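S1.2 Input.
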Amino acid sequence: MNAGAVARGQEIDARRAATGSAREGAARAGLAARGVIYVLVGLLALRIAFGDSGGRQADRGGALQEIATKPFGAVLLWALGAGLVGMALWRLSEALFGAAGADGGKAGKRLASAGRCVFYGFVAYSVLAFAAGARGSGSGDRQSRDVTAKALGMPGGQWIVGVAGAGLVVAGGWIAVRVVMRKYHKHLKLAEMSRRVRRAVDTTGVGGGAARGVVFAAAGVFAIRAAVKYQPDQAKGMDGTLRSFASAPMGPWLLACVAAGLVLFGLFSFAMARWRKV
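S1.3 Output.
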């Protein structure tokens, strides 16, 4: 092997290392940003459960408004948006090159990563738009109603909305079942975690993931209801879905349990930012 070939090999290795570091940094920043949003949404929902929301909505928009009122809030909003851009880019890299793990290159995994890329790209855009001054960009309930109204106005709109709602119900159940079975373990660096840390991560992962699944499923039920009744106002975003728990049996206590679960999921996201294989 001549000196030129060795130099080219070293250059390729250095490029791969730099790419891997960038990908890992983007993933961990994105997971941390997701954690911030879920913790704030959960805390806002807890305030609603106990009768003091401070006029905030328990959704992404409410979380962004909460950040905006804090010292250096504008800087924090831009940092949050940048983290979510990192999340979208990480999922895009998984869609293009495969995720970590033996089955990360399968078509189904890549397709799921592509869907997550689109989702987090939209979330990142809404956060950056909010940071730039579009204060109405984070209202989840309004966005849900607008999207539902447009979908219902299309040919076969009721079926489109109904199928989307059913998809959310299935996704919510899938999320809840997988976390209860601790399927996330395969994504974690378990060998580097103490027993105490692993127990804490499982507490946040199972409790938080189950609550997140319940919220997804409930939002799907409202979408199905909007399709059946042909009424876009029946569709609900995060805030409307969470508030609906307050009118269910056990009322505010049910909402408080779900809200606490969302806080746990935010904490679980922080743990994933530290311990996840990327």
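S1.4 Remarks. The two ends are 33 Å apart (CA to CA).
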